[in-house]
Amino acid sequence: MKENAIALLAGLLFGLGLGLSQMINRDRVLGFLDVSGVWDPTLLFVLGGAVTVTVIAFRFVLRLSQPILVDQFQLPTKKDIDKPLIIGAAIFGIGWGIAGYCPGPGITALVLGIWNPILFMVAFLIGSLTYKLYSSESKQ
Predict the structure, then answer these.
(1) Ranges in the chain, pLDDT < 70
(2) Long-range pairs for 61-69 at CB < 8 Å and ≥24 separation?
(3) What is the pLDDT, as a whole number, of residue 138?
(4) How far is CA 3 from the centre of its chain?
(5) What's the number of domains the chain is made of?
(6) Contact 109/101 with Cβ under 8 angstroms?
(7) pLDDT, tens digit, 9 for 90 and up, residues 72-105
(8) CA separation for the pair 105, 99 (Å, rounded)
């Protein structure tokens, strides 16, 4: 119960930050991605703030012997850059450039009551399920 309450609080805080920073405004995101046109650099402040907070917070958090709510940290161990990573990053970037959303802002933008985030989330779920189906077949 405690883990769920903290997850809910973190999600609400994340969603609030996405809304305040205008990351749920697809026009602002697409303007940021349009570096050869009418570029909107304001989301650099969002990126800079997120990286700064993360760098500082991780210095303290990773000094703990264990996380607060679980027994051990779950840190990635894979360090190589492989074909699935490159292809996945390219597909993600293309989708972000077309839609102006990535999953977090897409979910948060559902509260706007417009069709774009709904269509994005439907496409995101179809893509995720397709990958799950494809990856489970390739392992057999």
Answers:
(1) 137-140
(2) 69/2, 69/3, 69/6
(3) 60
(4) 21
(5) 1
(6) yes
(7) 998 889 889 999 899 989 999 999 999 999 899 9
(8) 11
Tokens found for residue 96:
């972000």
Whole-angstrom CA distances from 125 to 7, 103, 120, 131 are 21, 10, 9, 10
The residue type found at 67 is P
Q: Which domain holds residue 18?
A: 2-138
Q: Tokens standing for 25?
A: 């405004």
Residue 127 structure tokens: 């893509």
Q: Is the pTM of this model over 0.85?
A: no
24-52: b or e for each residue (b if 16 or more CB lie within 10 Å)? bbbebbbbbbeeeeeebeebeebeeeeee
